[in-house]
Design a protein that fits this description.
heterodimer; A: 176 residues; mainly beta; Protocatechuate 3,4-Dioxygenase, subunit A; five-stranded mixed sheet; four-stranded antiparallel sheet; 2 helices; 6% helix; globular; B: 255 residues; alpha+beta; disordered C terminus; PCDO_beta_N (chain B); Protocat_dOase_b (chain B); Intradiol_dOase_core (chain B); oxidoreductase (chain B); dioxygenase (chain B)
């Protein structure tokens, strides 16, 4: 390490016409044999939904082509429905909700959270298997560890809420 | 009841600066990034975690790899924000170029750089921007490119205007361009803002001042470089970006 890093600044409220792209939540096609849908709500410290957050998901194993541009017009085309890029990006809706479809994670999906009011993004993870979360974060109290584990809702659909602050605050990570 | 004004925000900025200077004087480490709890930017109040971050040092962590981008993700049009419509946008034409490096000073190659900005009047092409400044039908304010083998990027655009916001009474953002960057690892992800040298709004802006370390804050300000200005065409700014966080360990110089 020898060069000082460029500081982070908030994504602000106006990224909506620049960063999201068509099919940004469809990391795998709907007919993928291991497809699971993660969905939930991003909450602030008062429990209110955060309608202007941006979530990114990384599952690994990616090829280029998440955004895809029309080579003649430059228009954003988004997913081609074939290429597995491993990368998802979805803004939260007016009710703070998001949804993303990924291949069943082995054992977790990496998540990056951006929002107005958040000066530096936050990393967290979604585990489907509580035992895997326990193995990775055994030193954390069980209630904290549980914030990293999605809740099964129905066949192939899991609920994962993000709490930026408060009694149910999500575990956020730093990498060394 | 009157809301916060610039005087009260100035006091909050000064208080955090005092705290940081004491922290450094007491032997604390210099902070390169803003404190997420920074109070003068009032939207942080309910949106910053209060528990400490949990350290991960697993060399097998998925986050030590990251998304890959390539020729299908951008076109040559994307880096020129002045040529995306039938006519030319109003404003002062500029180029912004520089290099993207990691903490070891190695170039970050073939990675995606995304920018977005207000138009020359200080208005975003975003439905929720209600600032009564004119929209420009010839300017969307969105650009993308991939870094080259030296980690270099370049955009042609117009200089964005300052604009008001609702943090406090008479709050104005200095002119800035939003940048989103990917490194070779997801841990190196960065979203930030580039500012223009000599802007008189700097001391009043809690978002820029949230970087309380003077040297770190200076790294958010581009340099005007006369040699990068093009005769009869555009003014040239240079801004180099260094991504934080552990990188992909397999990455070798000269790959």
């Amino acid at each position: 390490m020898s060069v000082f890093p460029t500081p982070s600044q908030t994504v602000g409220p106006f990224y909506g016409y620049a960063l999201p792209f068509p099919g940004g939540g469809e990391v795998v096609p709907v007919d993928h044999p291991d497809a699971v849908t993660l969905h939930g709500v991003v909450h602030d410290g008062a429990g209110a939904p955060v309608p202007d957050a941006l979530l990114e998901f990384w599952t690994g194993g990616g090829a280029p082509g998440s955004l895809r541009r029309d080579p003649t017009s430059g228009r954003v085309l988004g997913r081609d429905g074939v290429t597995l890029t491993g990368f998802g990006r979805v803004p939260t809706d007016a009710d703070g909700s998001y949804a993303v479809r990924v291949a069943r994670p082995e054992p977790y999906v990496s998540v990056c959270v951006f929002a107005r009011g958040l000066l530096h993004h936050l990393h967290t993870r979604v585990y489907l298997d509580p035992d895997a979360a326990d193995a990775a974060f055994g030193s954390l109290p069980a209630a904290r560890r549980a914030t990293l584990v999605a809740i099964p809702e129905r066949e192939r659909v899991w609920r994962f809420d993000v709490h930026l602050q408060g009694p149910e605050e999500t575990v956020f990570l730093e990498f060394r | 009841m009157a809301g916060p004004d610039q005087t009260s925000v100035d006091a909050e900025i000064a208080e955090w600066r005092r705290r940081y200077e004491k922290h450094v004087a007491d032997g604390g480490a210099r902070a390169h990034h803003p404190d997420r709890a920074y109070a003068a930017y009032h939207s942080t109040a309910l949106r910053h975690p209060t528990q400490p971050l949990v350290a991960v040092s697993d060399p097998e962590a998925l986050e030590l790899s990251g998304p890959v981008f390539g020729v299908t993700d951008v076109t040559d049009l994307d880096r020129d924000l002045t040529r995306q419509h039938a006519g030319e946008p109003l404003g002062e034409r500029i180029t912004v170029s520089g290099r993207v490096l990691d903490r070891d000073g190695r170039p970050v190659r073939g990675q995606l750089v995304e920018i977005w900005q207000a138009n020359a009047s200080g208005r975003y092409a975003h439905q929720r921007d209600q600032h009564p400044a004119p929209l420009d039908p010839n300017f969307s304010g969105v650009g993308r490119c991939l870094t080259d083998d030296q980690g270099a990027y370049s955009f042609t655009t117009v200089k964005p205007g300052a604009y008001p916001w609702r943090n406090h009474e008479n709050a104005w953002r200095p002119a800035h361009i939003h940048f989103s960057l990917f490194g070779e690892a997801f841990t190196q992800r960065l979203v930030t803002q580039m500012y223009f040298p000599g802007d008189p709004l700097f001391p009043f802006d809690p978002i820029l001042q949230s970087v309380t370390d003077d040297a770190a804050r200076a790294r958010l300000v581009a340099a005007y470089v006369h040699e990068l200005s093009q005769p009869e065409f555009s003014l040239g700014y240079r801004w180099d970006i260094v991504l934080d966080g552990p990188g992909a360990t397999w990455m070798e110089e000269g790959r």
